[in-house]
Amino acid sequence: MRRIHYNDIVDKVRDICIDANYNLSKDVIAAYEKAIETEKSPLGQEVLKQIMENAEIAKNENMPLCQDTGLAVFFVELGQEVYIAGGLFNDAINEGVRQGYSKGLLRKSVVQEPIFERRNTSDNTPAIIYTELVAGDQIKIMLDIAGGGCENMAAHKMLKPAEGIEGVRKFVVDTVKNAGANPCPPVIVGVGIGGDFEKSAMLAKKALLRPVGQPHQRLEVASLEEDLLKRVNQLGIGPVGLGGIVTAFAVHVEIHPCHIASLPVAVNIGCHSSRHKSVII
After folding, report:
1. Tens place of pLDDT for every residue, the chain, 281 residues?
2. Number of H helices and number of E strands within the chain?
3. Measuring CA to CA, which residue among 213, 244, 182, 211 is closest to residue 47?
4. Exposed e or buried b for every residue in 145-157, given b needs 16+ CB within 10 A?
5. What's the CA gap between 33 and 153, in Å, rounded?
6. Could you give the CA distance from residue 68 to residue 21 in angstroms, rounded to a whole number?
7. How far apart are CA 158 and CA 215, in angstroms?
């Protein structure tokens, strides 16, 4: 049994909250470089260059990439041989978020109560935390910064099994089309297929954590991703909605077994500043 202290978790979470909001990951930067070469619209190319310049300024000046520093969403792989000393795991995650958003001067965007009294919690907690128990003595913490513009364009549908892959294709493309410029394209499109109502939505969110453009391990799923990306980029929405052939950097699909009578599909969209970081303790 390996002992990991509460404070170690707090420190790591604090640091990745700041890092994710200040610095684009290498995979996102590579996606931009490829997009500039691919985009045929001069205006689209200029927009992409300006977004990259913005990212460089944020990195050099130690400031957020975007004013919407989002909701902190965590996917955790917790080794069953780990003992957490000094406090509860979820409390450590939330304390790390609290410290990170304070130290990093990041905008606090969480309201305590969604309907009756939308009062800001003033520290961007509570975070959204999904924890999976796995083999081993490590903790892998994966963070996605979910901005409001992207989250508001997410969609879910319980398709009939008979609608099959064509129904999935139509729903995904229609969702991106209806989103238009709202999620700040070029986007990463996360798609969750299968499971049940909430599992498909969780899969769509988790899909955004994969390195941008990394294909699914299953060839038929990777082929679907490629096809969906082609269809999405034929919409002509382009960078920040000003037209072009790069509406999305990638489409990532995750799947899960489901009930014989169901075909749940969810779409979650990540903006051009795809902010995801991970750490292993």
Report:
1. 999 999 999 999 999 999 999 999 999 999 999 999 999 999 999 999 999 999 999 999 999 999 999 999 999 999 999 999 999 999 999 999 999 999 999 999 999 999 999 999 999 999 999 999 999 999 999 999 999 999 999 999 999 999 999 999 999 999 999 999 999 999 999 999 999 999 999 999 999 999 998 999 999 999 999 999 999 999 999 999 999 999 999 999 999 999 999 999 999 999 998 899 999 99
2. 8, 10
3. 244
4. bbbebbbebbbbb
5. 26
6. 9
7. 25
Joined together, the tokens standing for residue 221 give 């799923």
Question: What is the rounded distance in angstroms from the CA atom of residue 10 to the CA atom of residue 121?
Answer: 19
- Residues paired with 159 in a beta bridge: 263
Domain assignments of the chain as residue spans, ordered by start:
2-20+65-146, 149-274
Q: How far apart are CA 57 and CA 60, in angstroms?
A: 5
Token pair for 229: 């990306």
> Is the pTM above the cut of 0.70?
yes
Q: What region, left, alpha or beta, does residue 8 occupy, with left being phi > 0 and alpha being psi -120 to 50 degrees?
A: alpha
Burial class from Cβ neighbours inside 10 Å (0-12, 13-18, 19+) for residue 225 reads buried
